[in-house]
UniProtKB/TrEMBL annotation:
GO terms for cellular component: plasma membrane. The keyword Mitochondrion does not apply. Pfam families: Lys_export. This is Lysine exporter LysO family protein. The chain crosses the membrane at residues 28-46, 66-87, 107-126, 175-198. InterPro entries: LysO. One of its GO terms (molecular function) is L-lysine efflux transmembrane transporter activity. Keywords: Membrane, Transmembrane, Transmembrane helix.
Length: 201
């Protein structure tokens, strides 16, 4: 809980600095965030690479490892059904199409914009960005109270990159391997799911 509050406090501080334009210029316009992510992923990779037991998870689970991305996708669509009962302004297929982004906010929004669904494109961008942020902030709580697979399910496509460092930190290197697999599989599926669902709009 303490760690989640610390992460949330840092996030809020960033929001305030950005909103009031108090952040130093070098933090904003030179791609520093992207480089920091690369560095974090590098160190996570080194740490996981040194832990030979972590890779034993894949051998142990074998085909069962596919249940993780399958469960993530299924859980996301079930969540979309619940959200649809609360949001009456959107049709069911629209809610499901947005949810199909699975946390991958850039590509789904581009696909929807290119198909002429500009409003849904913006909604997909915001919704999936929000999913990524919530995963980053709540991973400590999710891992502690709902099991170590829950942050992986929450992160969706982001578990192979942006949310990977925090997932490894609070679930362990073995789950980091599962997170990478989950993220890669879902990232591959996202454009096909979004395109297929958008064709039904």
């Amino acid at each position: 809980m303490k760690t989640s509050l610390q992460l949330f406090a840092v996030f809020i501080l960033g929001l305030i600095l950005g909103y009031y334009e108090l952040a130093p210029e070098f933090l904003i316009n030179n791609g520093l965030v992207e480089y920091v992510l690369y560095v974090m992923l590098f160190f996570v990779g080194v740490s996981m690479g040194q832990d030979k037991k972590a890779w034993g998870v894949v051998k142990k689970l074998k085909a069962k490892i596919f249940l993780v991305p399958a469960g993530t996708v299924l859980g996301t669509f079930i969540g979309a059904v619940v959200v649809n009962t609360l949001i009456k302004d959107l049709r069911f297929i629209e809610v499901v199409t947005v949810a199909a982004g699975m946390g991958y906010y850039s590509l789904p929004s581009v696909i929807l914009n290119q198909l002429g669904f500009e409003v849904l494109g913006v909604l997909a961008l915001l919704t999936n960005l929000f999913r990524e942020t919530i995963t980053l902030l709540t991973t400590p709580i999710l891992a502690k109270y709902f099991g170590k697979l829950s942050p992986i399910a929450a992160g969706g496509a982001t578990t192979s990159d942006v949310t990977l460092p925090v997932i490894v930190e609070f679930t362990g290197k073995q789950y980091g391997v599962i997170a990478i697999f989950n993220g890669v599989v879902i990232t591959i599926l996202v454009p096909f799911m979004v395109t297929a669902l958008a064709s039904l709009l």
